[in-house]
C-alpha cells in the first residue's frame, strides 16, 4: 500500500470536510443537479476523448496509485548477480523456471534458457517494455484529461446556474437554488480535478517511469548474462540505476569485496 497517496488524498478530504462542517450544515454543499452535471458530464466528455477500452482500463489502473510495488532496485541487482553466477557455473539452461518476482524478468530468463540470441532478446523484450509503457500511459492520460475537463464542466455549470438565476429574477424562490448550482458546480469541478484526478494521474506517471526503469535494468542484465559477462562487471553496470548516494556506496562495496589482483 502506498501510504503517501492514501494519506495525501484522505488528508485533503478530511480538511475540506472539516471546513464544511465547522462553517455550516454539510447539506448546503450537496446539490444533485450540480453533481450530475459535473461528475457525469466530465466522465462522458473524457470517455469521448479515448476508446472505451482505454477508459475502462484507466479506472482499473488507478489502483496502482494506491497499491503497487516494484522490487527494490538493490535487491533486484543482487538477485541478478546471483543468477549470473549460477548461469556461469551451470549454463543458461539452469535459468529456466527460476523463481523471480516479475513476469517480465521470468520471460527474459526463459528466453535465455531457450537459446534466443542477444538481438532477439533485446528486440522482443524491448517491444514488451514499450507495450507496457503504452498501457500504463493510457491510464495517466485519462486521469489527466479528467483533471482538465472537470473544472471546465464546473464553469459550464456556473453559467447554467447564472442563466437560470437571471431568467427568474422576478421569482425570489428560484434565485437561491440557481445560485447554488452556479457556485457549487465550480467547487465540484475544482475538487475533482485537484483532489482526485490530478494526484492520481501524477502518481500513475510516476509508476510508469519506475516500471520502465526497472524493466530496462532487467533487459541490460539479461543481455549481460547472455554475453557471459563477469558477475562483478554486471553488478557495476547495474549500479547506474541506483540513486547517486547509494550508487557510490554500492560501488565501494564491490571494490572492497574484490580479491587483490582480481580484474573486472
Verbal overview:
This protein is mainly alpha-helical. The protein is 78% helix and 0% strand. It contains 9 helices and no strands. It has helices spanning 3-23, 32-49, 52-61, 73-90, 103-113, 118-167, 172-226, 231-238, 244-257. Helix 2 (32-49) packs parallel to helix 7. The longest helix is centred in the last third of the chain and has 55 residues, at 172-226. It is found in: Cell membrane. Pfam families: MotA_ExbB. Belongs to the MotA family. The chain crosses the membrane at residues 33-52, 145-167, 173-197. Its main location: membrane.
Total number of beta strands = 0
3D shape:
elongated
Structural class: mainly alpha
Tell me the span between the first and last alpha carbons.
Answer: 40 Å
What composes the largest sheet?
Answer: none
Q: Tell me, rounded to a whole number, the average pLDDT.
A: 86
| Percent of residues in beta strands | under 5%
Proportion in helices:
over 70%
Unreliable segments of 5+ consecutive residues: 259-264
Total of DSSP H or I helical runs spanning 4+ residues = 9
- Radius of gyration, whole Å: 27 Å
Helix-strand topology string: HHHHHHHHH
What would you say about this model in short?
With about 260 residues, the chain is mostly helical.
Descriptive keywords:
membrane; Flag_MotA_CS; mainly alpha; MotA/TolQ/ExbB proton channel family protein; flagellar rotation; elongated; disordered C terminus; 264 residues; transmembrane helix
Task: Compile the SSE list and pairings.
Elements: H1 3-23, H2 32-49, H3 52-61, H4 73-90, H5 103-113, H6 118-167, H7 172-226, H8 231-238, H9 244-257
Helix pairs in contact: 1-7, 2-6, 2-7, 3-6, 4-7, 4-8, 5-7, 6-7, 7-8
Domain MotA/TolQ/ExbB proton channel: 99-213
Family: Belongs to the MotA family.
Transmembrane segments: 33-52, 145-167, 173-197
Amino acid at each position: 500500500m502506498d501510504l503517501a497517496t492514501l494519506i495525501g488524498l484522505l488528508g485533503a478530504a478530511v480538511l475540506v470536510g472539516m471546513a464544511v462542517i465547522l462553517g455550516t450544515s454539510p447539506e448546503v454543499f450537496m446539490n444533485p443537479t450540480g453533481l450530475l452535471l459535473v461528475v457525469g458530464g466530465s466522465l462522458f466528455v473524457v470517455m469521448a476523448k479515448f476508446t472505451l477500452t482505454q477508459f475502462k482500463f484507466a479506472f482499473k489502473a488507478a489502483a496502482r496509485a494506491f497499491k503497487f510495488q516494484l522490487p527494490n532496485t538493490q535487491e533486484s541487482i543482487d538477485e541478478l548477480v546471483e543468477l549470473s553466477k549460477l548461469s556461469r557455473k551451470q549454463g543458461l539452461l539452469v535459468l529456466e523456471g527460476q523463481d523471480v518476482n516479475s513476469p517480465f524478468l521470468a520471460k527474459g530468463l526463459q528466453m535465455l534458457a531457450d537459446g534466443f540470441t542477444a538481438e532477439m532478446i533485446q528486440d522482443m523484450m524491448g517491444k514488451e517494455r514499450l507495450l507496457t509503457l503504452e498501457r500504463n500511459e493510457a491510464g495517466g492520460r485519462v486521469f489527466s484529461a479528467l483533471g482538465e475537463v472537470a473544472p471546465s464542466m464546473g464553469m459550464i455549470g456556473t453559467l447554467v446556474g447564472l442563466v437560470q438565476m437571471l431568467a427568474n429574477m422576478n421569482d425570489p424562490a428560484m434565485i437561491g437554488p440557481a445560485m447554488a448550482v452556479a457556485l457549487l458546480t465550480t467547487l465540484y469541478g475544482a475538487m475533482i480535478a485537484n483532489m482526485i484526478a490530478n494526484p492520481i494521474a501524477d502518481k500513475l506517471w510516476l509508476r510508469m517511469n519506475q516500471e520502465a526503469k526497472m524493466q530496462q535494468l532487467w533487459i541490460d542484465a539479461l543481455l549481460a548474462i547472455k554475453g557471459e559477462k563477469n558477475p562483478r562487471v554486471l553488478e557495476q553496470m547495474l549500479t547506474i540505476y541506483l540513486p547517486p548516494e547509494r550508487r557510490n556506496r554500492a560501488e565501494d562495496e564491490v571494490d572492497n569485496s574484490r580479491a587483490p589482483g582480481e580484474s573486472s
